[in-house]
């Protein structure tokens, strides 16, 4: 089948690469180049860079609500438009153009975690499993019928980056399976159940601030969900301190003897911090302006005896 592809971030690149090996891709739609970095130079999206490497036509409308953007899609004459983390709303006028519709790769087991940040929200909630759903797009927010889905277990050490990479690879596999089944006419569509709907709101940077009065397990999820962005952070000696890796550990209850945020012990095994409930062991951390370090290396240059971490 002749495909169009719409995507922007790294998550969409494995699917684009796999589809380009097996199908003609008439056009790749991605968001316009954006200024980034200290110099605010224009930067292309990961999808644009990969599409150019593959020799594909790249189109970058600022919106799909204009006649010009709709004509771009119409002129491509695609059978299916595959959409992966595109970041722009496709109105009904665009969804109706491809001959066999628009298929979306969504990084959750719908209807759980509809919306912008399903990977981070699954980690924050402590979900034991997540997965990928291939969905036929309609005007609602991730409300369309499901074509194919597959679950994976969330490992206790998974963070947003590792889970992102697993789901991106799974999404590339599932969209190819879906297109093969669609072509043969053996792809049933199932309406999403009304029970179990949750929404994955966009991540707010303020959510990364560690509240040491919470349970150690909740803070551990926060560290994992916000790595590599925006990074869970606390304050040490008046400076920003980012936490890259941490885990809750078995520890005696402090019974109010030490306030939350207090460093209980600091050894080569890690930096153990008292939480509202339980103890969090920090394994990797980063002071502002420094590189991330394992706890053992960090302690060679910093004394934490009697230290207490606080809200940034």
What this model shows, in words?
The protein has two domains: 3-104 and 135-144 and 156-186, Formyl transferase, N-terminal domain (Rossmann fold, 3-Layer(aba) Sandwich), CATH 3.40.50; 207-301, Formyl transferase, C-terminal domain (Methionyl-tRNA Fmet Formyltransferase, Chain A, domain 2). Helix content is 26%, strand content 27%. It has helices at 13-22, 46-53, 67-76, 92-95, 118-125, 160-184, 216-225, 295-301; strands spanning 3-7, 25-29, 34-36, 41-43, 58-59, 80-84, 102-106, 114-115, 129-136, 146-153, 199-200, 233-236, 239-249, 263-267, 270-274, 279-287, 293-294. It has a seven-stranded mixed β-sheet, with helices on both faces. Strands 12, 13, 14, 15, 16 and 17 form a six-stranded antiparallel β-sheet that branches. A two-stranded antiparallel sheet has the order 3-4. A hairpin with a 2-residue loop joins strand 14 and strand 15.
SSE order and pairing:
Layout: E1 3-7, H1 13-22, E2 25-29, E3 34-36, E4 41-43, H2 46-53, E5 58-59, H3 67-76, E6 80-84, H4 92-95, E7 102-106, E8 114-115, H5 118-125, E9 129-136, E10 146-153, H6 160-184, E11 199-200, H7 216-225, E12 233-236, E13 239-249, E14 263-267, E15 270-274, E16 279-287, E17 293-294, H8 295-301
Parallel strand pairs: 1-2, 1-6, 2-5, 6-7, 8-11
Antiparallel strand pairs: 3-4, 7-9, 9-10, 12-13, 13-16, 14-15, 15-16, 16-17
Helix pairs in contact: 1-6, 5-7
Structural domains: how many: 2
- Span from first to last CA? 53 Å
Record field, number of beta strands: 17
Elements, N to C (H/E): EHEEEHEHEHEEHEEHEHEEEEEEH
Helix content: 25-40%
Estimate the global geometry from the Cα principal axes.
elongated
The whole-angstrom Rg is: 23 Å
Q: Sheet with the most strands?
A: 7 strands, mixed
Major beta sheet, strand line-up: 5-2-1-6-7-9-10
């Amino acid at each position: 089948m002749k495909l169009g592809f719409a995507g922007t971030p790294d998550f969409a690149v494995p699917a684009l690469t796999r589809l380009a090996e097996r199908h003609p891709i008439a056009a790749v739609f991605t968001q316009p180049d954006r200024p980034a970095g200290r110099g605010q130079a224009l930067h292309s999206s990961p999808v644009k860079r990969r599409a150019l490497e593959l020799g594909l036509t790249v189109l970058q409308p600022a919106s799909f609500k204009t006649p010009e953007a709709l004509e771009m899609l119409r002129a491509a004459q695609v059978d299916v438009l595959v959409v992966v983390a595109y970041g722009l709303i496709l109105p009904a006028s665009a969804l109706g153009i491809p001959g066999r519709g628009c298929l979306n790769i969504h990084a959750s087991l719908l209807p759980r975690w509809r919306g912008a940040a399903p990977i981070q929200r699954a980690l924050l909630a402590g979900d034991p499993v997540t997965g990928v759903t291939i969905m036929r797009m309609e005007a609602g927010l991730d409300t369309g019928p499901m074509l194919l889905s597959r679950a994976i277990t969330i490992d206790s050490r998974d963070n947003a980056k590792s889970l992102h990479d697993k789901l991106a690879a799974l999404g590339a596999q599932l969209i190819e399976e879906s297109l093969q089944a669609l072509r043969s006419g053996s792809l049933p569509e199932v309406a999403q159940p009304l029970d179990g709907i949750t929404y994955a709101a966009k991540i707010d940077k303020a959510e990364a601030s560690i509240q040491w009065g919470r349970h150690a397990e909740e803070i551990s999820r926060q560290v994992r969900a916000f790595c590599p962005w925006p990074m869970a952070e606390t304050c040490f000696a008046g400076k920003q301190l980012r936490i890259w890796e941490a885990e809750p550990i078995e520890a005696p209850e402090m019974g109010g003897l030490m306030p939350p945020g207090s460093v209980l012990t600091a050894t080569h095994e890690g930096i153990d911090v008292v939480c509202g409930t339980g103890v969090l062991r920090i394994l990797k951390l980063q002071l502002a302006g420094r590189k991330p370090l394992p706890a053992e290396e960090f302690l060679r240059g910093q004394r934490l005896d009697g230290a207490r971490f606080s809200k940034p």
